[in-house]
Amino acid sequence: MNSAGWTSLVLWSACFIALSCGTVRYQPEQIHLSYGEKERSIVITWSTGNETDSVVKYGGGGQLLQTKTGSSTLFVDGGQQKASQYIHRVTLYYEDPDSLQPETKYFYHVGSDRGWSAVYWFVTPPEKLNDWAPSIAIYGDMGNVNAQSLPRLQAETQAGVYDAIIHVGDFAYNMDDYEGQVGDEFMRQIETIAAYVPYMTTVGNHESAYNFSHYRARFSMPGPYENMFFSFNMGPIHFISFSTEYYYYLHYGFKMLVKQYEWLENDLKEASHPANRTVRPWIITLGHRPMYCSNKDDDDCTQIKNRLRYGITPLRLFALEDLFYKYGVDLEVWAHEHSYERMWPLHNYTVYNGSYDRPYTNPEAPVHIVVGSAGCQERVDHFNPLPHWSAFRSSDYGYSRIKVHNATHLNLQQVSDDLDGEIIDDWWLVKEMPRIRFPLAEKMMEDDHLPSSRSRRDDFSNNSLPPVVQIR
């Protein structure tokens, strides 16, 4: 047999072994962490092309002496090629026999006897969670192309700057593109941060393909609703992540919008109970599309009758602004607009500053921020003239940092990547204990159905701004 014939025989044999010329992929990739059902649990998620065991080996001091097994699920992309992968999940609990210890750096790798990942690490929270002052990076709208903020986030994560990262919607642009290959590459990109700290998520409009299947399959958030809405605690903070997309993709069905609204009210009711508010005084909501913005692109957040705050018209069903106000949400974080914008304390287009000199000390309404400028191929958005309710805004690429110092003081910074990491906005939200409800909340509590603001101060038939602005 000549050399060409021998080469053909070898290649044919290799293809036969490799499942009829398909690539065998046992090597773990797209590794990322998240918080689990219990406050101290860590979920480790990764992908393989072919089915393998799901094993994590981990330990302190660089010795991977402990082993935990999990399970995998087959995910099939909705495109023509029906590309598939196995997504593996293993949960590490403090209650396990080989338990995680507080405030400990654990090293780990994932895989099976058919292939192992590199070794990564994470640090567990302190024993006294009430005294924990977590540092968090938060942003939205980061793509596979032009992910301008990612290198700086990689360096800061490796330096131990953050305890967690929160991505408020719009991943990869889009995870389903090119039969899911864009999603795979994006998950490989963020591995350099998400394999070291919990990477918590909120769904956005760019995840909508195949009824949000890529988002629902690829991430591992707590709760039974496939990552679409859930809550989790970090020390003194209660985070609530929910889907703004249920208000816009109604062709996927109305049922989940109803279920989410009921869940939101129950979760807020429990979180705002005095006993729980004493332990976790900060309530922060995470939703992709904002209620308020002043951008030029004419999105829904520039409209008075925004679906999130105004509800599904004409019946105004499932409006969220009064709900969040009623239960004393402190900070509402949004993305979608490719810019950064901080509002004054705001409810129903009316400013409720704590005082003229200290607007964010004991404010009488929630504070809204938009953090959608991490970087994607759609570039940044620009602004209309400054409205009275907007305090600061920037079209620089960048991301935010949230540091909750204690039960009363929260610091937020905006980092400009355009200006080589310069902090362009630095402010404090101060809410003294004991917490009191916002002024109109007691009235709302008297009515199980929330008194509609349309009968009170929100009857803007010509879509104009309300006539009264209160700035203290």
Automatic annotation (TrEMBL):
Signal peptide: 1-22
Keyword annotations of the record: Glycoprotein, Hydrolase, Signal
GO MF annotation, one: acid phosphatase activity
SUPFAM superfamilies: Metallo-dependent phosphatases (SSF56300), Purple acid phosphatase, N-terminal domain (SSF49363)
Region (Disordered): 449-472
Basic and acidic residues bias: start-end ranges: 449-460
Domain Purple acid phosphatase N-terminal: 28-124
Pfam families according to UniProt: Metallophos, Metallophos_C, Pur_ac_phosph_N
Gene3D superfamilies in alphabetical order: 3.60.21.10, Purple acid phosphatase-like, N-terminal (2.60.40.380)
EC number: 3.1.3.2
Superkingdom of source: Eukaryota
InterPro entries (UniProt xref): Calcineurin-like_PHP (IPR004843), Metallo-depent_PP-like (IPR029052), MPP_PAP (IPR041792), PAPs_C (IPR025733), PAPs_N (IPR015914), Purple_acid_Pase-like_N (IPR008963)
Family the UniProt entry places it in: Belongs to the metallophosphoesterase superfamily. Purple acid phosphatase family.
Name of this protein: Purple acid phosphatase
Source organism (scientific name): Megalurothrips usitatus
